[in-house]
Amino acid sequence: MRTSSETAGRSSTHYAFDSLHALPCGCVAAIYRTHPWDVQVVAVEARGPHCVHQQHEIGSVLGLEMGETDRLSR
Ligand SMILES: [Zn+2]
User: Fold this and answer.
1) Helix, strand, coil shares of the chain as percentages rounded to 5?
2) Per-domain boundaries in the chain
3) How far, in Å, from the CA of 66 to the mean position of ligand 1?
4) Does pTM surpass 0.90?
5) How far is the CA of 62 from the centre of ligand 1 (A)?
6) Which parts of the chain fold into alpha helices (H)?
């Protein structure tokens, strides 16, 4: 739904799901690709039963990765 009164200056909500990755601790991380900067956001999607990392809560962002390899192929 789009309205005629969009909030100006808000352009950080363009996330596209990319892939899932299993972490060594048992957690599952989801990779999201942002547009238009082509930066990958790594977020915890599911927590492993034996994970000891307190920062691995569901929905927490672990870090950012630049999609340099993809950029070369475009
Ligand atoms: Zn973990």
Assistant:
1) 5, 40, 55
2) 4-69
3) 22
4) no
5) 10
6) 68-72
